Amino acid sequence: MSATDNGDGHNLGGLSGPDSKYVKLVSSDQHEFIIKREHAFISGTIKAMMSGPGAFEENDQNVVHFREIPSHVLAKVCSYFTYKAKYTNSIAEIPEFPIAPEVSLELLMAANFLDC
Predict the structure, then answer these.
(1) C-alpha angle 111-49-98 in degrees, rounded to nearest 5
(2) Measured between alpha carbons, how far is 80 from 77 in angstroms, rounded to an integer?
(3) What's the pLDDT tens digit per position in 59-69?
């Protein structure tokens, strides 16, 4: 039994299996971002791809390839997922999420596609 195995064959960490704690997002230029599954599920699109009853290959591999989203945009999307998870239902003052003007259009298109 490994440190990430609970004894019944289910992996509790890492990227393998339906109960994995993390998922891998791959940009159009092949950069890989490993983030918490719960953060990735802020995206309605990713959640649908990975939660459906075996409808998508991504559900088994915990890897999602984005052929239209470059790494500089996907990195910002991942940062937003963390920001959103941290400040949802927060009673503290919520700081502004910084977005550089030069990536705002690409980020808007990615957010629209990802439903987040």
Answers:
(1) 20
(2) 5
(3) 667 899 999 99
How many other CB atoms are found less than 10 A from the CB of residue 104? 11
DSSP the chain: --TTB-SSS-B-SSS-STT-SEEEEE-TT--EEEEEHHHHTTSHHHHHHHHSSS-STHHHH-EEE-TT--HHHHHHHHHHHHHHHHHTT--SPPPPPP--GGGHHHHHHHHHHHT-
> CA–CA separation, 110 vs 73, rounded Å?
8
- Give the pLDDT score at 41: 95
